[in-house]
Design a protein that fits this description.
Elements: E1 3-7, H1 11-23, E2 27-31, H2 34-43, E3 48-52, H3 60-70, E4 76-80, H4 85-93, E5 98-101, H5 106-137, H6 146-158, E6 165-168, H7 175-184, E7 193-197, H8 206-211, H9 228-231, E8 236-240, H10 247-259, E9 261-263, E10 270-272, E11 276-281, H11 285-290, H12 296-302, E12 305-308, H13 319-334, H14 343-350, H15 357-371, H16 378-384, H17 390-401, H18 406-422
Parallel strand pairs: 1-2, 1-3, 3-4, 4-5, 6-11, 6-12, 7-8, 8-11
Antiparallel strand pairs: 9-10
């Protein structure tokens, strides 16, 4: 529920605004002057502040400037019974969302509050999206093991060329990350990187997904659709789990690579495309070829350069760096206090059999951040990383059944931490 802070030295005004806003289902707090407003803002976050200008101790204009420093993303609506054009202009210049004269027109007040709420929501959404985008764009290949160092060197050599690359390795080893590194270091980095998970698309839809379709091409084709190859024009297309692609789709991909042209499903027009293809698989494509499930000619087109990503069990020396990296990212993203890993706990993590590779390690680190009391200890690792008993699974489930999502778990942890620090 949206939370609003009403700041005014007149109790009657505060009561009137509270009654109206609470009737509209807002949660309302009150402050009697600018100084009280600062105290309230330090203790809690608000979606909107409604503030008078003429107040004792600290007037609204000075308080507005302080709010800009203390909670810069919080919209402030200024109200005043001594309104004039100059005052309104000054308030807006100092960062006020809007200016309303006293006695306020209640309809206008409610509309202004809703607009301010929309702005606050947009700012929050924008920050969330920026975090997600930056996390995708700025992923790091963390580690200094010999095998990872060799992969980085290969990427630096291959990225500037147009050579097609096949990335192989088990699930969770970071094949997608290698593809992103290749694209970001290539001359095509300013163009799109289009990802296609071939294993997640039904075989009857894969051709439409890759090459697009014309309206009426099949029963559910109600309008024309642009395929991934067209979307990736001038950029890079990443075909993940290429080993799961049907033979008919493989034939069309081979033709697209040979001729740099595609034809939409249900169409007869050839469309020229300029894409660099990076593919990945967790399968042994040589074995797939021998058993008739993968085209040898397509394999040779895709595997100009082959980069094999080793399993995490073969690069255990990278685990401390990876764990620190994940802790920093997860705690920063969710506003949690940084946790340290005791040396014995780190050694225990290095001795785990990581069948799920780096993806599994990240999930484990996230679990340890949530469930460990303070620093992550060896006991935490032994309790929450090794296979749990049915009783422990039941206890673990009870914790999460209290919440609707993982985000709510993080919010609870952050609140408890802040409460502990305040106490």
């Amino acid at each position: 529920m949206a939370r609003i802070l009403v700041v005014d030295d007149q109790q009657a005004i505060r009561k009137t605004l509270r009654d109206i806003l609470e009737f509209e289902k807002y949660t309302v707090d009150e402050a009697v002057d600018g100084l009280d407003c600062m105290v309230k803002l330090k203790k809690a976050a608000y979606d909107v502040v409604v503030m008078d200008i003429k107040m004792p101790k600290m007037d609204g204009m000075e308080a507005l400037e302080r709010v800009q420093m203390l909670a810069p993303d919080t919209p402030v609506i200024m109200i005043s019974g001594h309104a004039n054009i100059d005052t309104a202009v000054e308030a807006v210049k100092k960062g006020a969302f809007d200016f309303i004269s006293k006695p306020p027109d209640l309809n206008r007040m409610l509309i202004t509050v809703r607009n301010a709420m929309d702005k606050s929501s947009l700012i929050t959404d924008n920050k969330t999206l920026k975090v997600k985008v930056s996390r995708k764009k700025k992923q790091e290949m963390v580690g200094n093991s010999k095998s990872l160092t060799e992969i980085k060197k290969t990427i630096e050599l291959v990225a500037p060329s147009e050579a097609r690359v096949l990335v192989t390795g088990s699930n969770g080893t970071g094949k997608e990350l290698v593809a992103r590194y290749l694209h970001e270091r290539s001359p095509r980095s300013s163009e799109p990187l289009i990802e296609v998970n071939c294993a997640a698309i039904p075989s009857e839809l894969i051709e439409s997904e890759l090459f697009g379709h014309e309206k009426g091409a099949f029963t559910s084709a109600h309008k024309q659709r642009i395929g991934k190859f067209e979307l990736a024009n001038k950029g890079t297309i990443f075909l993940d789990e290429i080993g799961d692609m049907s033979l008919s789709a493989q034939a069309k991909v081979l033709r697209a690579l040979q001729e740099s042209r595609i034809t939409r499903v249900g169409g007869d027009k050839e469309i020229k495309v300029d894409v660099r293809v990076v593919s990945a698989t967790n399968k042994d494509l040589r074995k797939e070829i021998a058993e008739g499930r993968f085209r040898e000619d397509l394999y040779h087109r895709l595997a100009v350069i082959v980069i094999k990503v080793p399993p995490l069990n073969d690069r255990r020396e990278d685990i401390p760096l990876l764990v620190d990296h994940f802790i920093k990212n997860i705690c920063t993203e969710h506003g949690l206090p940084m946790k340290k890993v005791k040396p014995e706990a780190m050694l225990a993590l290095q001795n785990v059999n990581w069948t799920g590779n780096i993806r599994e390690l990240r999930n484990v680190v996230e679990r340890l951040i949530i469930l460990s009391a303070e620093d992550i200890t060896e006991d935490d690792v032994l309790r929450y990383v090794v296979p749990m008993s049915s009783q422990e699974v039941s206890e673990f489930k009870k914790i999460f059944d209290q919440y609707n999502s993982l985000e709510e778990v993080y919010e609870h942890i952050a609140k408890e931490y802040k409460k502990h620090r305040t106490d």
